[in-house]
Amino acid sequence: MAQRRMISKEVIQSQRFLTLPLEAQALYFHLIAASDDDGVVDAFPIVRMVGAREDNLGLLVVKKFVLPLNNEMIYFITDFSKQNKIRQDRIQPSIYRDLLLEKTDLVRDGKRLVDKNEIIDGQMPDKCLANDGQVADICQTSDGQMSAQYSIGKYSIGEYSLEQLSTEKNLLLMIKNLNRNLFPKLSKKATSNLTTDKLKCY
């Protein structure tokens, strides 16, 4: 099981999260840090360890940040897959996977669990198909597997694999795409004269 977890600003800077008491927010961070590779966590030792009140756990349930899987304080972090993408060959399935599949809309996709709405009749979503019918680069992880979403952020360098950045041409394309998305009014002027020769100056 991974020793590190990622947290998305899309989740923790949302109104839904920021209206929680600070104690409930802190508890969420501890729960996601202690979760397994399927996003399941035994909340009892975490609540005891940090001295949190159980009503804060209840608030996380009401706000749909966590989902109770049984009456023994086993919870599923609902936004786990949005924040953490783990390579197929590194996933260690949860010991509660069968319970998780029973209580949620998740389905197996290899060793990974995905929302059943992401897979239609076993086919990849249209946005992951290039014009020639091949899997688009942005829908693949560095091991060639399909990624449900970008690994780090919508407009971050994390959505590009090392293989994609291995050539100056692809690096140039990546920079132009980032500028176009982040600075639409400036992108045309800022990137029109950008060349691979200029990249070498950085």
The number of distinct structural domains comes to 2
**Strand line-up across the major sheet:** 1-3-2
Radius of gyration: 20 Å
In whole angstroms, the N-to-C terminal distance is 38 Å
Residues in helices, as a percent range: 25-40%
Task: Tell the overall outline.
Answer: globular
Per-chain topology:
Elements: H1 9-12, H2 15-18, H3 22-34, E1 40-42, H4 43-50, H5 54-62, E2 66-68, E3 74-77, H6 80-83, H7 97-103, E4 106-109, E5 112-115, H8 168-182, H9 187-191, H10 196-199
Helix pairs in contact: 3-4, 3-5
Structural features:
single chain, 202 residues, mainly alpha, 2 domains, three-stranded antiparallel beta sheet, globular
Summarize, please.
With 202 residues, the protein is mostly helical.
What would you say this structure looks like, in words?
- This protein is mainly alpha-helical.
- The protein has 2 domains: 9-101; 151-202, no CATH class.
- The protein contains 10 helices and 5 strands; from the N terminus they run αααβααββααββααα.
- The strands form 2 sheets. It has a 3-stranded antiparallel beta sheet. The chain has a two-stranded antiparallel sheet with strand order 4-5.
- A hairpin with a 2-residue loop joins strand 4 (106-109) and strand 5.
- Mean pLDDT is 74; it is low at 126-138, 140-160 and 198-202.
